[in-house]
Amino acid sequence: MRMGHFVNFKEELKRRTEEAEHVIREYLPEESGFAKTMAEAMNYSMTAGGKRLRPILIRETYELFGGKDKLCEPFMAAMEMIHTHSLIHDDLPALDNDDYRRGRLTTHKVYGEAMGVLSGVALLNRAYEVMLSAFDLTEDKDRVIAAMRIIADKTGINGMLGGQSVDVENDGKPLEHKMLDYIYKNKTSALIEASMMIGAVLAVGVFTLLFLLDDTIKSEEDVRRYLKLNTLASIPKEKKRRRASSEA
């Protein structure tokens, strides 16, 4: 039964947020050894709460497309790690210089600026360590590879970090509408879009997803040719609409 069938949306959302929280905690680093302080700083930020919207969207889309196992869970945790790394760095003195986030001191205020930088980078790297563990959960390795390609593209210069750089570079300056749209689309929206794309790809694979979204895809060879030239994120919007309307 999907979320739309429930009368009490708030209670259902609370339950799914708690489920996402449980998954995330399963993949956090152990606080031990010489790098204990690093792990503590990473976990301090990861357990600060939040809506957990992105991991929830991964699971919801995964199940919407027929996924029934735990393959999406490493990506749920990894997505939140990537998102949290960006928040840690946003709060640093070199960027927004914030002392509080979600009602408590920011990471660099508790652990120092150097550890704030390092723990953010460590979370970004940890995300890929966690995603790689998904290879142990499925025989269909191509789905994991495709999902990782999406998240890499949507995190980097063509996504969240690209948008973040433009935002920082133009802080305090008047912005044209086109640049503001770029910042919103990349800094804010890229990981949300990636969450839904990842859930779908993990559930049905690249071929089925591209077949539904792009009417030029007819065979596995078409998929291989397409992915040599594009990322999944670059499917033209008009093709998405045309294929969707033809399937209706």
What can you see in these coordinates?
The chain is an all-alpha fold. It has twelve helices and two strands, in the order ααααββαααααααα. A two-stranded antiparallel sheet has the order 1-2. α7 (141-155) packs across α10 and α8 crosses α9 (177-188). The longest helix is centred in the last third of the chain and has 24 residues, at 190-213. The two termini are 22 Å apart. Residues 235-248 have low confidence and may be disordered.
Give, in spatial order, the strands making up the sheet with the most strands: 1-2
Helix/strand/pairing class, anyone? mainly alpha
Low-pLDDT regions? 235-248
How large is the radius of gyration?
19 Å
Q: How many runs of DSSP E, i.e. beta strands? A: 2
Quote the average pLDDT: 87
How far do the termini sit from each other? Answer: 22 Å
Shape: globular
Could you state the order of secondary-structure elements as H and E?
HHHHEEHHHHHHHH
Number of helical segments? 12
Sheet of most strands: 2 strands, antiparallel
**Helix percent band:** 55-70%
Percent of sequence in beta strands: under 5%
Question: What's the short version?
Answer:
By secondary structure, the protein is mainly alpha-helical.
